[in-house]
Amino acid sequence: MSGAGAWGRDFGAGVAIAGLLLPEAVAYAGLAGLDTAQGLAAAIAGCFVYGLFGRSRFAIVAPTSSSAVILAAILADPALSVAEKSTLAVIATGLVGLLFLGASLLRLGALASFIARPVLRGFAFALALSIIIRQLPLLTGVAVAGRDPFHILGETLRRAAEWNGSSLAVGVAALAALIVSRRFPRLPGAALVLAAAIVAAMLFDLEAHGVASVGRMDFVLLLPGLPDFAAADLPHVARLCLPLVLILFAESWGTVRSLSLRRGDAVDADQELRALGLANLASALMRGMPVGAGFSAGSASEAAGAQSRFAALFAAILLALLVGFGLEIIARLPEPVLAAVVIAALLHALDPTPFVQLNRVDRDQYLAIIAALGVFLAGILNGMLIAIALSFLLLVHRLSSRHVILLGRLRGGHDFVDIDRHPDAAPVADIVILRPAQPLFFGNADPVLGEVARKARLAVAARGIVVSLEETFDLDSTALDALQEFDAAMRRSGRDVVYARVHDRVRDLLSAAGAVDMAARGAFSVDDAVALLSKRLGLGENSV
After folding, report:
1. Which of 255, 329, 466, 511 is most buried, taking the most CB atoms under 10 A from its CB?
2. What is the H or E stretch that residue 301 is in?
3. Which of 303, 293, 299 is nearest to 348 (CA)?
4. Cβ contacts of residue 347 below 8 Å, gap of 6+?
């Protein structure tokens, strides 16, 4: 595509993105309990800075629904005034930016992989459903207090007789239009729905029919600077920022990675951390709220034909022009339309396909369900912490399992496979070959090697043992001690031990620890280990 054509596609995508971000930023600011201007300032700053420093051509960095809800949990104290909430939100945004930059300098991008995908899917499903439930009072025009989604849903349904028909009609019509517009991805559907809603509000005087509107905004917040705050506020906000950073990065990296994989683009987690850090610092300077790469905006950018990060820059500029010269118009935007925009953006997260797939393969479906229940039963913030804890518990459980595989020679060749899974694999005479199915580390070394010893004792006819360490690429001091103790115990019992698939790092550690003999009994393959042990035992090299 020519340069002019690419720029044209980027500008068209920028128009579509700006049309989507305007109502989303307004809605998410309200979701967090903040002034509308903070959401718009964050969207402008996030898009512009990520467009300069990010790597994904599709990612759009702006306020997201999940971060807005977690920020709302941080600011949930009813004693806080709007001004105090605004100040704390700016502090949180700045701290989030600094944490992202620190993580980038320490190259911690790989940690995103430690949050299991089933846990994230369960969390995202519950979060989306929770946010959608919170939009029901805006759709129906009924004021409902409280943040518990069960309470909000029950109270909204109980007061069905008080629903405002005009508000519900406007919201449902906007939602239907947004869903239909997805069939025409080249059109800026959100922008068109937004414009139609404002025109309808003016023509039919919707406020006179009880339909709430966004109202006037004081956009002095766009002036760069930091608010006055007390040092005592920092510890309170800082201790709650880690869940915000984790969900923002998990959501952002998931969006960037999925969109990039679809198009074969190369991205780096540590570079994305740096870009997100700079975007959040810029948002804080603009007195905005935390920002991340949301899936709905990124998907809209891809569908609109974005060719480069200029699409995000165009979106930021267009959004700034819109709020700079169109505040009076934006003030007429009906709140049910904002609720419809949020609901439409989150409908994709209610797709049950990932849960069905987990159940089909019978892996981790209960983790996804527990993560989802955690959000509903313990709240968004605690639900996120539960999701993170579940991911690490899953990792520890998998690594600490004592699964040891008995290997046999496959059809008289050089390959050794699991005897239980391959009936044509045969054991080697006088030798038992065992392979731990997980890497050895301080949390599992003793029980795993204990299981190896137990299985070796069951092979009473075996005079020697081959232990394959192919899963263990390194050893900590605890695992190193446990391996040496295992070797000594086997030698005392009269069994010779040879190690197969020994990585160079493990061999070096054994030598440094004084276990030179163990290092010498290490082979690069199972076949070589069997040959070495057969020679030590005085057996034929290939005896079976």
Report:
1. 466
2. helix 295-303
3. 299
4. 128, 179
Secondary structure E strands in 437-495: 464-468
**408: nearest Cα among 432, 379, 437:** 432
Q: Three-class SS of residue 305?
A: coil
> What digits encode the pLDDT tens for the residues 191-250?
788 889 889 988 988 888 888 887 766 555 445 666 666 666 677 677 778 878 887 887
d(CA 44, CA 288): 9
> pTM of the predicted model, to two decimals?
0.68
**Cβ–Cβ under 8 Å, residues 346 and 65:** yes
Least-confidence region, from 37-46, 332-341, 419-428, 459-468? 332-341
Here the tokens at position 35 are: 């002034």
Report whether 481 contacts 471 (CB < 8 A).
Answer: no
- Alpha-carbon gap, residue 290 to 300, rounded angstroms: 20
Structure confidence by residue, pLDDT tens digits, 262-287: 677 778 888 999 999 999 999 999 98
Q: Is pLDDT above 90 for 183?
A: no
Supply the pLDDT for residue 262. 65
Contact 209, 176 (CB under 8 A): no
In the chain, the amino acid numbered 358 is L
Q: Please give the DSSP secondary-structure letter assigned to residue 425.
A: E
- Give the confidence band of 100 by pLDDT, cuts at 50, 70, 90: very high
